[in-house]
Specification:
By secondary structure, the protein is of the alpha/beta class. Strands 5-2-1-6-7-8 form a 6-stranded parallel beta sheet, sandwiched between helices. A 3-stranded antiparallel beta sheet has the order 9-10-11, with helices on one face. A two-stranded antiparallel ribbon has the order 3-4.
């Protein structure tokens, strides 16, 4: 492995807050980008106060903001806007997730910033995108999940839909933001020109919806919620164990299905020609699920998983945080790492993805204190101490 990280030397300016934009810059920072996070003076990113807190700061913050530098700056002030323009002069990427039009109101929109730096890449994440009739509506990830088609499918039939337990719409948008950034950086090597990337939360979710639209267009089929099963693919479901827990069994490959049926003592189903392929199994899914359930209900979860592992049938169970922390596989692949908090305590955090063999990403610590790097960043811009003092007096920094 080399010490040089793949994005070392890339300068990224983060003007967003909460989840989608900051998650994208987190990923860039883990691979060496210098991420300067602009935060409101005296308040900081609201995520600093979300979910569980320790010593007044969100534990989530130490994942979302790791490897970043914090700059307190009033973006609504003329002086603050001028600092952004100076930062943009040699920045490679700006990531923002304000409502469309907000940066334009401050004189910091794409047209203005690209004129300062024609090589600039600007990533714009919003609820509905920079164009279209909904562009000015406020949009959070959960609304994008609903409009994108995911929320309707989550839950059981004839019950209210449920949300995925994490901010998946924001996170998917962040992944597309990173993909778009890397594509634009690659193209810039050829043309020397920057461009802006328009990411809509609902579109990031919608792009994950597999055959939802073709099925509707072909014959009017509207996919309905299916609980723990995977509709149109069988068998794949959650099955009850002897102790009331559940196992997830994915026996939907043709050869896997045969091994599964042999393991549960149903060689008749393994040899049934009607069940040889997925389309036939879907027509008889109740028969198959009934046979699997009859077997799982008689055994413990550990016995079931050991038996299916031995038969090369994919199986597992829904992990809690406690299950993840004690699992040796997570540890062996560095997916659980320790950081030191400012007070001296250690904190387990998720490791870095994806895994590069020669230039892997890394974690250099938790999230910065509010404004921790303000003086350092302004010094780098050549702003003298007296000017900084006056800016502080005026509440610009």
């Amino acid at each position: 492995m080399e010490n040089t990280q793949v994005l070392q030397g890339l300068k990224v300016l983060e003007l967003g807050q909460l989840i989608a934009g900051p998650f994208a810059t987190k990923l860039l920072g883990e691979f060496g980008a210098d991420v300067i996070k602009v935060e409101p003076v005296g308040k900081g990113d609201p995520l600093r106060k979300w979910r569980k807190l320790k010593d007044g700061t969100s534990l989530w913050w130490h994942v979302q903001a790791r490897n970043k530098r914090s700059l307190e700056l009033d973006l609504q002030s003329a002086e603050g806007q001028e600092v952004v323009r100076r930062l943009v002069q040699d920045a490679d990427v700006v990531v923002e997730n304000f409502r469309p039009g907000t940066l334009e109101k401050w004189g910091l929109g794409w047209e203005a910033l690209s004129e300062i730096n024609p090589r600039l890449i600007m990533v714009r994440v919003s609820g509905y995108g920079q164009t279209g009739p909904y562009r000015d509506k406020p949009g959070f990830g959960v609304i994008g999940e609903a409009m994108g088609g995911l929320r309707y499918l989550c839950g059981f039939p004839d019950q209210p839909s449920v949300r995925v337990g994490i901010s998946i719409g924001d996170s998917l948008s962040a992944l597309y933001a990173v993909i778009g950034t890397l594509l634009a950086l690659h193209e810039r090597q050829r043309s020397g020109q920057g461009q802006y990337i328009d990411i809509a939360l609902y579109e990031a979710v919608f792009s994950m919806m597999e055959s939802l639209i073709p099925e509707y267009d072909a014959d009017g089929h509207i996919r309905e919620p299916s609980g723990s099963a995977l509709p149109g693919i069988a068998p794949s479901d959650a099955y009850p164990c002897e102790d009331g827990s559940y196992v997830i069994i994915a026996g939907n490959g043709d050869s896997i299905f045969k091994r599964l049926m042999e393991t549960i003592g149903r060689p008749d189903l393994a040899a049934d020609p009607r069940l040889a392929h997925n389309d036939g199994r879907v027509q008889h899914v109740d028969l198959i699920d009934g046979a699997i359930t009859e077997w799982t209900q008689r055994h413990s979860r550990d016995f079931i998983i050991q038996s299916l592992d031995a038969a090369n049938v994919p199986a597992g169970y829904p992990y809690t945080a406690a299950d993840i922390v004690k699992d040796p596989h997570f540890a062996s692949r560095d997916m659980l790492q320790q950081i030191q908090l400012p007070g001296g305590d250690s904190l387990k955090v998720p490791g870095v993805m994806p895994k590069l063999s020669r230039t892997p990403g890394r974690i250099d610590g938790g999230g910065p204190a509010l404004g921790e790097h303000t003086r350092q960043i302004l010094d780098e811009l050549g702003i003298d101490a007296e000017t900084q003092r006056k800016m502080k007096e005026k509440g610009v920094i």
